[in-house]
Amino acid sequence: MKLKNMLIVVDDIELSKKFYKELFGLDIVVDFDGNVILTEGLVLQDRKIWEKFLGREVTYGHHDAELYFEENQMDAFVERLKNSSFEIQYVNPLMEHDWGQRVVRIYDPDMHVIEVGETMEYVARRFLVQGLSVEETAAKTQLPLSMVELIATTSE
């Protein structure tokens, strides 16, 4: 078995298509009658269709899940958020975790939580370039030493 898609319920398909295209570069794969499949496996479904399928009302904003994207150019991404046509609501602005990964969390137009973070390989490379040893980098990032050793011996 393999996971094929992640479906989120939205109130305004057109607004959500624009949001995910403008901020995340997701393109439309299929667009049909209240169901939109975007690249990267994200599916948008109109709230009314989902409620009819389930026979229950949708409630947004319970912070019980998030969509996770990776982006190594975090400063540029944060700038994209600032300059977007959307009024971005932050769960938390750009921050750095104890293990060195920089992340930002925002809400989409339907209050789904989205996290954007650097890849851990990128974080490890950053520490190695800054002069941390392989051992220090593994300890800081909490990555296995063997993984950091591999990162240290391969080019980007």
Report on the structure:
- The strands form two sheets. The protein has a four-stranded mixed β-sheet with strand order 1-4-3-2.
- The chain has two domains: 6-118, 2,3-Dihydroxybiphenyl 1,2-Dioxygenase, domain 1; 121-153.
- A hairpin with a 5-residue loop joins strand 7 (102-107) and strand 8 (113-117).
- With 156 residues, it is α/β, with parallel strands linked by helices.
- It has six helices and eight strands.
- The chain has helices at 13-24, 47-54, 74-83, 120-129, 134-141, 145-153; strands at 6-10, 28-32, 35-38, 42-46, 66-70, 89-96, 102-107, 113-117.
Quick recap of the structure?
The chain has 156 residues and is an alpha/beta fold.
Name the overall outline: elongated
Tell me the total number of β-strands.
8
In CATH, the homologous superfamily of the largest domain goes by the name 2,3-Dihydroxybiphenyl 1,2-Dioxygenase, domain 1
CATH topology grouping of the largest domain: 2,3-Dihydroxybiphenyl 1,2-Dioxygenase, domain 1
Name of the CATH architecture of the largest domain: Roll
Structural class: alpha/beta
Q: What is the element string, with H for helices and E for strands? A: EHEEEHEHEEEHHH
- Supply Rg: 18 Å
- What's the CATH first level of the largest domain? Alpha Beta
How many structural units, i.e. domains? 2
